[in-house]
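Appendix B, Record 12. Input sequence as logged:
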Amino acid sequence: MNQTRREMLEKCVALGAVTLATSASLSAIARAWDTAEAKRQPTPFCELGPFYKRDAPHVSVLRAPGDPGMPLSVAGIVYSVNGEILPNAKLEIWQTDNFGHYDNAGYRFRTTIQPDPKSNYGFESVLPGHYPARVCQHVHYLVTAPGHKPLTTQLYFASDPVFDGDPDKNFSRDPLITSRELVRPVMLKGDPQQMVAAVTFDIVLEKA
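Logged structural output:
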């Protein structure tokens, strides 16, 4: 990667497209450029909420056959702000069912997930419902990893009717949404009889 970057820099310098005002070598500049590109913004905080429960089971399929609601598939990668993958992270995830109800007696629609060796995680569920105390559909996350700050955040869906098709303009209708970045695009996959709402939600943790 650095070699390719260096070759590009050499060409730009030769053509006059880039002027160097530094004594650093092109290799050093290329490495610094790569490092800067690897930097990631930490995932915005969003409050824990009152319905968190410890010790959720380690499952990747939260929905059961016959559960009402649009099937949901969420996948992502857990990173540090330096772009490193974090396969030792732990994700605790919980949400309501299709009707907006949390299972506070048991562990329906609750899970604890460990990413795979490449730091990928994923789970199958249903789109959570709305409930009176909250404006938007959402999924809760509590993410921890050795050497990093714990993160509590929430995933929101651009397809939520609350946004009237324009989350850029209307995401603040829910006062608990701290950042537009938490409202993720939804891709509908499958045929009309087996439609799934697919969402990508990468997590980026800050160093402790």
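Strands lie at 71-80, 90-94, 110-113, 120-126, 139-144, 151-157, 183-184, 187-189, 196-200, 203-205.
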